[in-house]
Amino acid sequence: LRSHPYLAVGWFWYLGTLIPVIGLVQVGPQAMADRYTYVPLIGLFIMAAWGMADLAARWRSPRFLLPLVAGIMIVVYGTVARFQVAHWRNAVSLFQHTLSVTRNNLLIQGALGEALYFRGEVDQALVHFQEAIRLHPPLGLAGVAWVMATTSNPKFLNGPRAVELAKLASALEQ
Q1: CA-CA distance, 69 to 57, in Å (whole number)?
Q2: With contact defined as beta carbons under 8 Å apart, do 7 and 51 qualify?
Q3: Per-residue confidence in pLDDT tens, the chain, 174 aa
Q4: CB-based contacts of 134: which residues, under 8 Å, 6+ apart?
Q5: Which of 173, 112, 121 lies closest to 142, judged by CA?
Q6: DSSP 8-state assignment for residue 90
Q7: How far apart (Å, rounded) are the C-alpha atoms in residues 126 and 112?
Q8: φ, ψ for residue 171 (rounded to 5)?
Q9: Are 114 and 125 in contact (CB under 8 A)?
């Protein structure tokens, strides 16, 4: 460790900043804050960057090889990032992609229902709130009640039924 202090620095950075990400210390209403993952990864990048520099200094290779490998890695990671960013066009595309790679995701079913509702696709929003009912009845019922109480679409607007569903959701949650 004395000859490679960056390993200790990187590792302790990673572990120390991972605490909010894994939910040991809760940040906001979510149990895990994976959106903060980039902060702990700095520690791993420290270890990788200085480790690669150490390896390159000891490794006898042609001078062009290291920049070539780095260039190839940049192209590969850039290509992967470009495809991933396509899922972030808007909330609906992001949530639809999330549902395609996860199962039984209550949070995303509700978020997609809400995004579709605000886009004017009330019938599709209700499909996702119905799925939310299957996963966690009180939250799904609250979503359906919200749509029925606030929509401007007369096909789905039903205030008395919305109140009924909201009361049921509240009773189930207690």
Answers
A1: 15
A2: yes
A3: 788 999 999 999 999 888 777 766 666 666 555 667 788 899 999 999 999 888 878 877 787 888 898 899 999 999 999 999 989 899 999 999 999 999 999 999 999 999 999 999 999 999 999 999 999 999 999 999 999 999 999 999 999 999 999 999 999 988
A4: 140
A5: 173
A6: S
A7: 10
A8: -65, -40
A9: yes
CB 115 within 8 A of CB 93: no
Contacts 24+ apart (CB under 8 A), 145-154: 145/169, 147/113, 147/117, 147/122, 151/117, 151/122, 153/122
C-alpha to C-alpha distance for 168 and 120, rounded to whole angstroms: 26
Question: Do 147 and 122 touch, CB atoms closer than 8 A?
Answer: yes
- Amino acid in the structure at residue 163: V
- pLDDT at res. 35: 66
Q: Dihedrals φ, ψ of 29, to 5°?
A: -75, -15
Q: What is the dihedral of CA 71, 75, 77, 79, to 10 degrees?
A: 180
Q: Which two tokens stand for residue 3?
A: 């000859």
Which of helix, strand or coil describes residue 156?
coil
Burial degree of 6 (CB within 10 A; 0-12, 13-18, 19+): middle
Distance CA 63, CA 126 (A): 60
Of residues 79, 77, 95, the one with CA closest to residue 132: 95
